[in-house]
Write a structure and sequence with these properties.
It contains 5 helices and 7 strands, in the order H-E-H-E-H-E-E-H-H-E-E-E. By secondary structure, the protein is of the alpha/beta class. The chain has a 7-stranded mixed beta sheet, sandwiched between helices. A hairpin with a 7-residue loop joins strand 3 and strand 4. Helix 2 packs across helix 3. The N and C termini lie far apart (about 30 Å).
């Protein structure tokens, strides 16, 4: 019997449905999650805001590692939980990757202002883990990535990844 899966994607998709393009993908392993990150990186531009949502261990940092590889940035992409944010400059002349973990931040955008994300956003790709309710005001256009995984005592590595493109920038997401 298959383990039940969490489903925050449904809630996010319903809340943003009027102005969103939604795409669901199945990912079977961490390697596939990293490959998905590389694939997403191929459509990212300076100024893009990517918000990652999922349980602990869902694969948010693994996906971001793939984004970093695809963007050709310097440095190992690891979870920035204790430093809050890491900047990975481009080695290829592309945008830097600003990787933020907002898990320990309780407030909204006011608390995030100390990170100067609004300054970094125009020339970088900003990826925020646990950013729901905290960084939406940074941009009318954003890509929300929701990762659902099996819950309970299971070694199931399968994930359902929902890409929700919000705003005109993401109108072509369905062709991804």
């Amino acid at each position: 019997m298959e383990a039940p899966h969490n489903s925050p994607a449904t809630e996010l998709a319903e809340g943003a449905a009027s102005a969103a393009v939604t795409l669901k993908l199945a990912v079977e392993s961490p390697e596939q999650m990293q490959a998905l990150g590389r694939r997403i990186a191929g459509i990212l531009l300076p100024g893009d805001l990517v918000m990652l949502t999922g349980e602990l261990g869902a694969g948010k940092t693994t996906l971001t590692r793939g984004l970093g590889e695809g963007l050709g940035v310097r440095g190992a992409v690891t979870s920035p939980t204790f430093v809050i944010a890491r900047v990975h400059p481009s080695l290829t002349g592309g945008p830097a990757l600003v990787h933020v973990d907002a898990y320990r931040l309780g407030g909204g955008l006011d608390e995030m202002e100390d990170l100067d994300l609004d300054v970094s956003l125009p020339e970088s790709v900003v990826v925020v883990e646990w950013g729901d309710g905290k960084v939406e005001e940074l941009s009318d256009d954003r890509l929300q990535v929701v990762i659902d995984r099996a819950v309970g005592d299971t070694d199931d590595e399968r994930r359902e990844v929902t890409l929700i493109g919000i705003g005109a920038r993401w109108a072509g997401l369905g062709e991804f």
